[in-house]
Write a structure and sequence with these properties.
654 residues; Neutral endopeptidase, domain 2; 26 helices; four-stranded mixed beta sheet; globular; alpha/beta; three-stranded mixed beta sheet; Collagenase (Catalytic Domain)
Length: 654
């Protein structure tokens, strides 16, 4: 089979690939395709996700039906999957309860007397799945990858980014946000909903003034800051860390284990937060927290609150006209709570062992190609090359699904209490994460589900992961032409390996530690090449958003991943063919690369992503080929062509 057979009806043959590879492969499709009404974007990525969702739906509905029928012999996980899905689909029970499930939380907010009470509440609120003044998570220590650390990061905002509170181009979004909050407060029966909504925006705005800009948060050195519990108290004295920590951990983890040493990603934000806590009266914090309670639980309450919540976060921010069908939202809930239990069944039904074997070969070829490429670099010294080889040799591929699926035996769910189930699932996950502290790092843990259509690189464990969900056409097919697989999943593999050598990943060694393994001259040369890519992307203007520009500093890591990934995928394909590959096959590789980025977004989401997403718009991901000598050779480009770059202007890093 040829994957490109599916691409051809959407090609625009009037657009030359030499001028616009993305437009050549996808132009007709972009003109003729309507984004489904419950989606904010469309293309192969989302289509595969939809297919996986349908497959997971069949698994979940099968189990739910068998549980409801009282079938014996089902596993405990199967029963939990069935009961959780049933609780979400029981709209009559949800309607009958109304706001009753969240009244205790709203009452607790109204009872807060001071900021110490606020800190204690936030610990419990985060424990059950809410979000407070900052984000928190457990991850390996970036400078000691054999231990886990509790991490704190800036947060507290209801809008996607701090720029939404200061940039005039988002003024209409701010107005819509206040209208949305007003609706939430009215639904909760508050007397002065409009004033309350204005208060929330004002508090958000004060918090946002202490946030780092999005590109700055990518700096892995600046965001590595260790603080003891005493240091946290000095950094943000107005926040009661003891009360927060005890309530977050419950009885599971001692305070000195949780907060004895913490990585604070943006210390100045916590200092700023402490000042805001002292500045604003507790009445405003109560109002702000009430909005967080309502926002957190709105998707699990009555239809009017679900629709209100979607109206802002779906329609306004992403431009999506229609709320997704209830079964789809139910599938998402089950995957969030019991995802690996579902994944085990998904793999058994939909992922053949032969695909895993073929992926092993592809990964091996990509790693070998990276090694050859590094050996030929003219800007890197031999000493640093040896360190790069060492890192490459310790890359750990994870393909398809984990060797050991997660144990959900401690999670309790029932078929008749949706909010109770959401709370139970959140507490289960909080305890699972906090239990890592003080123990050895589990390098076998997966950070994506098998059914996920995506991939990742994790610098702390120096691993690349390719779930079963993405191992389908157009990315991969066991029956596809090899060139197409290399232009699809091969470039994705190369991209993820490339993250180990992008502006962030290159600062980690093979053991997963922040450790400068570069010579001073090599580091300077790498920085020059990275900045050239930043400058190139800073000049790009998306055709969908005239007048807007890509943020080259925000997207540089992903752009390096794309550039290196495609370059190495091409080299790996040629190696796989014994060192010789036809022009037709190499052309197929580049065409499928452009096909996998076939994407159409609603304007609202495109504008949001341009502000907050570290990935460049799809057209520029596909057209990164302008930097590859191999592309210019295969398509015989000439000066004056749209994708022509003079050889000295082409950025080649790996």
């Amino acid at each position: 089979m040829s994957i490109l057979d599916d691409a051809r009806p959407g090609m625009d043959l009037d657009t030359r690939p030499q001028d616009d590879l993305f437009g050549h492969v996808n132009g007709r499709w972009l003109e003729e395709t309507e984004i489904p009404s419950d989606r904010s974007s469309w293309g192969p990525f989302v289509q595969l996700a939809d297919r996986a969702e349908e497959q997971v739906r069949a698994i979940i509905e099968d189990l739910a039906g068998r549980v409801a029928a009282g079938e014996s012999g089902l596993s405990p996980d199967a029963r939990k999957i069935g009961d959780l899905f049933a609780s979400f689909m029981d709209v009559d029970a949800i309607a009958a309860r109304g706001l009753e499930p969240v009244r205790p939380l709203l009452d607790a907010v109204e009872a807060l007397r001071d900021v110490r009470d606020l800190a204690a509440f936030l610990g419990e609120f985060e424990r059950i799945g809410g979000h407070g003044l900052f984000g928190s998570y457990v991850d390996s220590d970036s400078k000691d990858s054999d231990r886990y650390l509790f991490h704190l990061t800036q947060g507290g905002l209801g809008l996607p980014d701090e720029s939404y509170y200061r940039d005039e181009k988002f003024a209409e979004v701010r107005t819509a946000y206040v209208e949305y909050l007003t609706g939430l407060f009215r639904a909760a029966g508050r007397r002065d909903a409009e004033a309350d909504a204005a208060t929330v925006l004002a508090v958000d705005t004060r918090l946002a003034q202490g946030h780092w800009e999005r590109a700055e948060t990518r700096d892995v050195q600046k965001t590595y800051n260790l603080f003891t519990l005493e240091g946290l108290r000095e950094l943000a004295p107005a926040f009661d860390w003891d009360a927060y920590g005890r309530n977050l951990a419950g009885t599971k983890v001692e305070l000195d284990v949780l907060l004895g040493e913490v990585c604070v990603r943006q210390p100045s934000y916590l200092s700023h937060l402490s000042g805001v806590l002292e500045e604003l009266p507790i009445e405003q914090w109560r109002t702000w927290l009430a909005s967080h309670v309502l926002r957190a639980w709105a998707p699990y309450l009555t239809d009017d609150l679900v629709e209100l919540n979607f109206g802002f976060y779906g329609r306004t921010l992403n431009g999506t006209p229609e709320l997704r069908a209830r079964w789809k939202r139910g599938v998402s809930l089950v995957e969030g709570a019991l995802g690996e239990a579902v994944g085990a069944e998904y793999v058994a039904r939909h992922f053949p062992p032969s695909s895993k074997a073929m992926m092993d070969e592809l990964v091996a070829n990509l790693l070998a190609a990276y090694r050859v490429s590094i050996s030929e670099l003219d800007w890197m010294t031999e000493e640093t090359k040896q360190r790069a080889y060492e890192k490459l040799d310790t890359f750990r591929p994870k393909i398809g699904y984990p060797d050991r699926f997660r144990d959900y035996s401690a999670l309790r769910v029932t078929a008749d209490d949706l909010v109770g189930n959401v709370v139970a699932a959140s507490v289960f996950e909080t305890d699972r994460q906090l239990a890592k502290l003080g123990g050895p790092v589990d390098r076998d843990e997966w950070f994506m589900l098998p059914q996920t259509v995506n991939a990742y690189y994790n610098p702390g464990t120096n691993e690349i992961c390719f779930p079963a969900g993405i191992l389908q056409a157009p990315f991969f097919s066991p029956d596809a032409l090899p060139a197409e697989n290399y232009g699809g999943i091969g470039a994705v593999i190369g991209h993820e390996i490339g993250h180990g050598f992008d502006d962030q990943g290159a600062q980690y060694d093979g053991a997963g530690n922040l450790n400068n393994w570069w010579s001073e001259a090599d580091e300077a040369a790498f920085r020059v090449k990275s900045q050239a890519l930043v400058a190139q992307y800073d000049g790009f203007e998306p055709r969908q958003l005239p007048g807007e520009k890509v943020n080259g500093s925000l997207t540089v890591g992903e752009n390096i991943g794309d550039l290196g990934g495609l370059t190495i995928a091409h080299r790996a394909f040629v190696i796989s063919q014994g060192g010789e590959a036809s022009r037709d096959d190499r052309e197929r590789l580049f065409l499928n690369w452009a096909f996998v980025w076939r994407t159409k977004r609603r304007d609202e989401q495109a504008r949001q992503f341009l502000t907050v997403d570290p990935h460049s718009p799809a057209e520029f991901r596909a057209n990164i080929v302008r930097n590859l000598d191999e592309f210019h050779e295969v398509f015989d480009t000439r000066p004056g062509d749209g994708l022509w770059l003079d050889p000295e202007e082409r950025v080649r890093i790996w």
